[in-house]
Amino acid sequence: MTLSFAERLHETRLGLGRRIVEHIRSGTSDLAPAAMRNDVSVYTDPVRHAAERQTLFRETPVVACFSNDVREPGQFRTFDETGVPIVVVRGRDGEVRAFLNVCQHRGARLVREAEGKANLFTCWFHGWSYANDGHLVAAPEADRFCDADGVSAIGSSDHLISVPVAERHGLVFVQATPGSTMDIDAHLGSFGAQLELLELDKAEKVKDGVLPVDSNWKFALDTYGEGYHFAALHKQTLAPYFRSDITVYDPFGPHHRVLFVAREMETWANRAEEDWGVDDALGGIHYIFPNTILFAGAVSPGKRYYTTFRHFPGETPGETVTYKTIYAPGGVKSDAHRKEVEDAWDATAHVVRTEDYVVSAEGYRNLQHLPPGSTVIYGRQEISLQNVHKSLAEAIGMPLPPVTATNPQMREAAE
Ligand code: FES
Ligand SMILES: [Fe+2]
Questions:
Q1: What distance in angstroms lies between residue 122's CA and the mean position of ligand 1's atoms?
Q2: Which of 265, 301, 350, 396 has its CA 20 to 30 A from that of 44?
Q3: Which class is 63-169 in CATH?
């Protein structure tokens, strides 16, 4: 018997709730079989960085925005995060398309607003106009512009250049290489059914912004994958609300879900399942390989929000920009609701800026000064980091460097 959407959602939440309660009762956690060392060059090596930028950010689908960010026909967003100038737009036929944001006349940046709604994109250089399906529809002085072939010489061959794009589960994925093949269903695999449960297609954007950090993008990404650091780094900010000693982890190919256990869930252990409030059990992190963290949180019980943290590497291994956007699941209900969600953006941004990204910048600088062969260690509870680094290395075809049992500097100190 196939379950309805509501039944699947409930079953998933209840299953996660039971795992959380089991861990609380027995003092356990999901753990990797062993800790894992990783050579620090994985973060600092410019050759690996270049391979990641090309393979993971140009030849892999990445989340550009939510479907609802380009809900109406003509609604568009520019997408420059990968370094490739792209515009994402919904056409009159309801299809989302992506194009290089490059006028075919002489290369000007065609769409210069970050977002908006338009039936025509008109280039500000000489005024060529394109429909939102990418077709060139008008060029001023077309009769003078062309030779004997006339207007048709422009119209037939000078449409915008398409970039692979797909919409799934309320997300718009773009693969930033024109002419490349993108198979979004193969990419998402079994994770697609999990993303579907979040009903992202009903979420409304409330606030966005950027969080730059002088660190490697993977170092920044790592801070979203484990709750182990809550008790120390987030002693004042998150530790009062979340336990740092319980991980609930599920891999789905290279993607994963990590739940963080809110302290209020401790009361579940003494209550009947019906009274748990499992609607909050699907909080935590959904990691969409290679760079997107989708955090499901709550302003207060029952008042949920979604935040995307999309991490993009800069030119050098030590530059990252995180694009952070917060959404109201099911849409904004009132001005007061909007304000609450905006405040949640500010609160999480403050924690990231003043805690996670200070650690990330200082830590990245430190890694560059360690002797060759030095390692970082991902503990058993940092299981998601272990799998992310393996998956990233596999995707770029550069195996993780072999590691020795101990750091060279520790060996020297011991001798
Ligand atoms: S470059 Fe766009 S119209 Fe000339
Ligand atoms: Fe953190």
A1: 9
A2: 350
A3: mainly beta
